[in-house]
Design brief:
259 residues; globular; cytokinin riboside 5'-monophosphate phosphoribohydrolase activity; 15% strand; LOG; seven-stranded parallel beta sheet; Rossmann fold; hydrolase; 9 helices; alpha/beta
């Protein structure tokens, strides 16, 4: 694997897995389970119960390491998107454009640090001279942090990582993505709706991709009285990079004026 972005497109990562801050490559990457899975899976021998107090210390260490690494990060935006986006896909270029536009506007870009759309955003931010941040996660099928990440932190536990996404972002932008993107999207909306975090915008980028979901939320969820108009207004749907970044800037300015 190369850490030089100039050759990132021509050379592939060796087989690699992240186990928190530990990198496992080649034959050492063949572990059958992940730390998260072993914590959450209640099946099997009961002796794992007695190790949970020690797991708490590891979880605490992840929070401490994450807070320490990100404490001095300037204003930032988290951008989610699919790890399966190919480099030749137009969505990859959109990711680069968004990362670059955020950098030009003075925002760091935070992603999950993986390939696909995440790599595109990190690349765009790095190439534009902005801060490119990747928060990786231990998974059985991911390849580790992409080479365009300037500041990277690897996590064992999803809930620790999610805290970092929320705590150090002023907004979320969601490119087309799968279950992981949907998970982060609705968790963010829930935290904002319930006032667990300061109100910040959630941008759905790509009307063709997100339009069906947006229409369903309006017609079925809002229409059925399960959310209110204010909740629906938390989402902004767009196809324009300048519009997306403008929403972020406007919300940040409003927050600054209130504080």
């Amino acid at each position: 694997m190369t850490n030089n972005p100039e050759t990132a497109e021509s050379e592939e990562h060796p087989r690699e897995r992240q186990r928190g801050p530990v990198t496992l490559r080649r034959g050492r990457s063949d572990e059958a389970t992940t730390t998260d899975q072993r914590l959450l899976d209640s099946r099997g021998p009961s002796d794992w119960v007695h190790t949970d107090p020690w797991r708490v210390l590891r979880i605490q260490a992840e929070f401490v390491e994450g807070f320490g690494a990100l404490a001095e990060v300037p204003r930032a935006v988290t951008v989610f998107g699919s790890a399966r986006t190919k480099r030749e896909d137009p969505e990859y270029q959109l990711g680069r454009d968004i990362g670059a536009a955020l950098a030009d506007a003075g925002f760091a870009s935070i992603t999950g640090g993986g390939p696909g759309a995440m790599e595109a955003v990190n690349r765009g931010a790095s190439e534009a001279g902005g801060l490119s941040i990747g928060l990786g996660i231990e998974l059985p099928f991911e390849q580790g942090l992409n080479p365009w990440v300037d500041l990277g932190v690897n996590f064992r536990y999803f809930f620790t990582r999610k805290t970092m996404f929320i705590k150090y972002s002023q907004a979320f932008i969601c490119l087309p993505g799968g279950f992981g993107t949907l998970d982060e999207l609705f968790e963010a909306l829930t935290l904002v709706q319930t006032k667990k975090v300061t109100k910040f915008p959630v941008v759905l980028f790509g009307t063709e991709y997100w339009g069906g979901l947006y229409d369903w939320l309006r017609s079925s969820v809002l229409g059925g009285g399960k959310i209110g108009e204010k909740d629906m207004a938390l989402l902004h749907l767009t196809d324009d990079v300048s519009d997306a970044v403008g929403v972020v800037e406007k919300a940040y300015q409003a927050w600054g004026d209130a504080h």
